[in-house]
Protein 1
Amino acid sequence: MLILIPTYNERENIVTLLRELQTSVPEAEVLVLDDASPDGTADAVEDVSSELSGVRVLRREGARGLGRAYLDGFRLSLADDFEVTVCMDADFSHDPGDVIRLAQGLKAGADVVVGSRYISGGRVLNWPLNRLLLSRGAALYTRLVTGLPVKDPTGGFNVYSRRALKALLLDRIDSDGYSFQIEIKHTLWKQGFRIDEVPIAFTERREGRSKLNRGIVREAVGVVWRLRRFRIRV
Ligand SMILES: Nc1nc2c(ncn2[C@@H]2O[C@H](COP(=O)(O)OP(=O)(O)OP(=O)(O)O)[C@@H](O)[C@H]2O)c(=O)[nH]1
Ligand SMILES: [Mg+2]
């Protein structure tokens, strides 16, 4: 199992998270996908990697972006022959203790397991109302426009089978922010992969600052219409 963690200025969270992962999923390898964080996140990972086994950092250069970082991670996961690839945020919104439970969904026959805030048993803790409304609104909007039958399309705590990642990389993925999460799930759904949702409790980030901005939201608003056009054509 390979756990991919994209980071931008997560120095305050990443080392603690890596330690917790070592305890909860000792057999997993971890690849941190860092976009030249000015706060030295990549150096912090490198420092701790001598002490924790199976921890690496990819120092990305050039254009910054969550989607781009993940695509690099997917390519490396396939190149290294991992059967199971887990994606999670660095800020403790995603509980390291949930990784095993999510990964078990692949054993149950799914190709993609979505850690879901918006199915029965899922929860969001400590989010202001406006943030919750934005996220729930985005989920509803995506479903209405594209028909994607996933209750939490923007979530970033997901597990992919090797088969699904392979298919994904053959497709062209253009978006980057939240819409990247939507586009991946939409692409795999259109290709007929089985997507299961498993409830998670999502918590507001522990330390550091949010990278959510208007541009990311605007991108998502446009992307779902592009996905819909694609749906009508096929
Ligand atoms: N490599 C890379 N990682 C990023 C980039 N933007 C965000 N991230 C990471 O992606 C994950 C999700 O980003 P967040 O800023 O937590 O986004 P969010 O969860 O919607 O917002 P908050 O939790 O409120 O901060 C975190 O681990 C970030 O460090 C980026 O441009 N490049
Ligand atoms: Mg976050």
Protein 2
Amino acid sequence: MDASLGKKLDYIIIGAGSAGCVVAARLSENPDVEVLLLEAGGSDAHSDVEDPVKWPRLLRSERAWQYETAPLRHCNNRVDRVPRGKMLGGCHSLNANIWARGHRSDFDGWEEQGCRGWGWSDVLRLYRKSEDWNGVASELRGVGGPLYVAPPTDPHPLATAFVESSDVVGVPRLEDHNGPEMEGAGFANLTIKNGQRHSVVNAYLRSAMNRPNLTVITHAETSRLLIEGTRCVGVEYEHEGTLKSVRAECEIILATGVIGSPCILMRSGIGPEDQLKRLGIDVVFDSPGVGQNLHDHPMIGGINYECKVPMGAPHHNGVEASMWWRSKAGLIGPDIQALLLEFPYATPALADRLPSSNCYTIAPLVARPASRGSMTLSSANFKDSPIIDVNFMASDSDVEVMLAAIEMCRNMGASDAFAPFRKREVMPGKLNRREMIEFIRMSTTTCFHPVGTCKMGVDRDAVVDPELRVRGIKGLRVADASIMPTITCGNTNAPAVMIGEKAAEMIVGN
Ligand SMILES: Cc1cc2nc3c(=O)[nH]c(=O)nc-3n(C[C@H](O)[C@H](O)[C@H](O)COP(=O)(O)OP(=O)(O)OC[C@H]3O[C@@H](n4cnc5c(N)ncnc54)[C@H](O)[C@@H]3O)c2cc1C
């Protein structure tokens, strides 16, 4: 019996984000188990969350963790921001709602690295389980699942121009980016229903919260795990100004995301021994991979155009069209993504070049980055932000892919399809190779997709095994985007939801 809650708990899930909400909802489907979900943030009830076009306004609000990167050594030591959702729904409550499952080779690659059960055919079943696709059910698309997914109903004319412009670079048009092929240009799949954000809260958690066996506590920030010997038995968290602890009979599931999960592990004594000792943290298990392998999709902010006709307001999420393609022949999948942003977008270092309004952006990104960074604790205090060294452009190959991506995107931007809109290319303009590399170093920013800090695998650097169990500790799993050994080449929300579905199945199966 847990004294503070007045009941015996079977499972505690920490973090009500994209994956955590799915795990909580699925586990509590069994009325015989007691489930607790702890979330550091508060409710998602806010008009800026509901209206899918307002997501940029949330990034500096109280509903986001306000992290920053360490100086980007290969990007002129600029500091980039790392906003993450801090409310029910986590990042799915403030993201751009694009639903992209990733390329089959992403998951087959995980399986080849030893992650059995994570190949494309395994994860496709889970994607179909989660989806309520606004179309016909098929072997590729799910209908009747919790999450509504649909293409934009009324795309902005600029999004249409982007899709049409792909002809000039020889990229095919796609009906459905989550269909038989991912490579091509088309309208994004969106988790927007009746004009409103359809997050994991709407899809999974809200109805589950009516169940008597699911307790959700918001404004409950976990400080550390309670570990006895080699078993995780509970959680210490701060709520209403006091530290409380709670225990679970079966398992604790850490779903606090790419920053939260490795931080909580390290504060609990699970991490690289030398780092923990330096901070005075008692080492429970030396796990050198915790916090390592940090990577993200580096994105250019941006290739900008002044528009010669009034653009009007962005439609849907303001990011309705997307393209995946290869920078060179012979790759197993796409290594470039480009997005059409129906608004101006530039890093602070270049923002003063932008017109104040009537400006659109083509934003290319490296979909399979080679650069790797790390995340380390700055202190043992859970209130202190960690050191987030995302290390964009550390690898020359990322620079080369980005050069190819920029060239493609500038050709698309200069095409006839954009002629009714294009007044001038604001930046970068025609530059030589050296100048373009300098532009990359000034304009590279996050696409908000960091992953990898609690890598799944079978080697010594793996933090969790293919069943998501934390190596060296019993009764503890990680289930969120931090477990990706390598980033998927699409946006990372759908994979996080899939990871939640897979974790729940593995836990129930035990
Ligand atoms: C601005 C933005 C736009 C994006 N746009 C898209 C998009 O359009 N499409 C897409 O596919 N992806 C997008 N992403 C990325 C995608 O949303 C994330 O990869 C995904 O949501 C990550 O899910 P997660 O479960 O790993 O973590 P999260 O969703 O981040 O959930 C982690 C949860 O844990 C909580 N937490 C953290 N620390 C603690 C603690 N100590 N105690 C208790 N709770 C804690 C957090 O508050 C949060 O609720 C975007 C991300 C951002 C930030």
Protein 3
Amino acid sequence: MSNDLKILCGDAIQKMREFNSRSVDLIIADPPYNLGKDYGNGSDSKSFEEYIQFTKEWTKEATRILKKSGTIYVFMGFRFISYLYQILEKENSLNFVNWICWHYTQGIGKKKGFSPRHDDILMFTNSENFTFNLDSIRVPQKYYRSRNNMRGANPGDVWGFSHIHYCQDNRQDHPTQKPEGLIERMVLVSSNEGDLVVDPFSGSGTTLRVCQQLNRNGIGIELNEDYVKMTSKRLSEKFTGFDSIDPRMERVPNDLNDVGIREEYLANHLEWFLKNHNGAKDVFFAEVEKKYGTRLKHSSKLSNNKSLFDE
Ligand SMILES: C[S@@+](CC[C@H](N)C(=O)[O-])C[C@H]1O[C@@H](n2cnc3c(N)ncnc32)[C@H](O)[C@@H]1O
């Protein structure tokens, strides 16, 4: 792949000041939530006023460098989400599109009150005319019906992705590594091949890893030099599939009773939904067999119906 990927070591605000205005197609920002995590630089333990000021400054630069057709996603925890919304809408005059709930099943338990099981992600754009490639991020339908679009459904604004567990191969030594499958959805829907994606708080390099595989140009900015080195190493590793997936991508629609239609659909399913997810194919094959008694061959040439089914 010939896409250009860079990781810059330094402060996000200062580095973004060096970018040309209106030069970036997509910004994926996962700043410290100010909850006291240890990123080796004290960046997550600011006073309330300091954190608000920091948020105003970095969002101002991000808005300046974003193209008119561009999109910004910002991850945030409960303490500052309402302030962040105001800053993006009122101070930066951005266009609100979605308040996404990233739902996960594991996390710290609470004895009084409900255990938190989601983070919020705000999606704003620079105008109402923004890139949105819906077909690239659809999720499989639950049922085969003539009225359903079998290319898939809109995934909605509640996204279920597990955290990357400590025992997973590509778990990095970073306290808040995000799932590649989640970032993949943002990159696919809000940019095109060859576009420029910027991650101002790039941490372990998840966004750059996803850009590398999806043929986007990417620039990451990270304050901690060790995480910069971690990212370079991560980018040099062999790709075996993204580390996470929305479980709906593995589901096989009910009522695919016509054999011809079923064979065509199942081959398409692999191309449409599981293209960068080799690890999910076994679950999908098992589900097909359970539902339809059809055995699928685990071949690398899965886009061709003939090579897909056992003779
Ligand atoms: C929530 S983490 C990002 C995690 C990342 N999305 C991933 O998947 O690994 C925030 C990162 O921002 C970095 N950081 C904090 N303040 C910064 C600043 N002013 N400029 C650039 N990076 C900063 C921290 O060192 C930390 O790695």
Protein 4
Amino acid sequence: MPTVRIDDREVKVNAEDTILDAANKAGKWIPTLCYSPVISASGSCRICMVEIDRGDRRQLVTACNYPVRRDITVYVESETAVRARQGIMKLLLARSPESEELHLLAERMGVKGTPYPKVTESQRNCILCGMCILVCEEVIDVSAIGFSGRGVEKMVTTPFKLASEECIACGACAAICPVGTIKIRPHLDDGEVEISPFKSRVKLKKCKECGELMVPEPVTKKMLGKVDFTWKEYKERALLCPVCKRKKSAEALSLVESKRG
Ligand code: SF4
């Protein structure tokens, strides 16, 4: 097992662990934004940069996707590492100036505001971390969104920037977005839900019994397509709102009791 020396601490980790894993084990905080254990670590936001000792020199690497492999010395609190992370944070604040989540993290990192001009309105509030794209592709298995454009024009969008027919409005992208830019907007009068800013709108499923609006229709469809119906009752229950589901369960229970009695 390789030994990782992180500033003043030392831990033993598995060879395939990352520097971030080692830091967590050592109780050392490294800021992260685009890291989540449910998707591949891309290191795209760069906020977890640390220095590693290369013998003749030191090198900045992203902790979330740098595998330890062998004994290694890591500097989380060196002047270079701290300044690198603070510099990245200032750039991110220019991209997403209204994000409360980002401001909270900036404060914890000792960053107050940004000297950089804010990005244009169309780019506003997205830090281009790509977590939404990865969760849509790797977890939901849909791929409704992706990067488009280059340089300052780069953005996360649907193909041709049109409302996506692939999107099932599951909301996973909104849940994982670290700066709260992606939002789920209900349009109850139309019985629909929208994933903003992608403009994707889908119908909400109505409870089979009472007509109450529930989850997006494509989500139910996808879920039912994945479930092996050895438990027959499941399909029936998936089409009911919680109130009607409880009513059905109570009815089934009283039926069993009346047969017994
Ligand atoms: S809401 Fe649409 S874009 Fe977002 S993860 Fe689900 S399928 Fe993908």
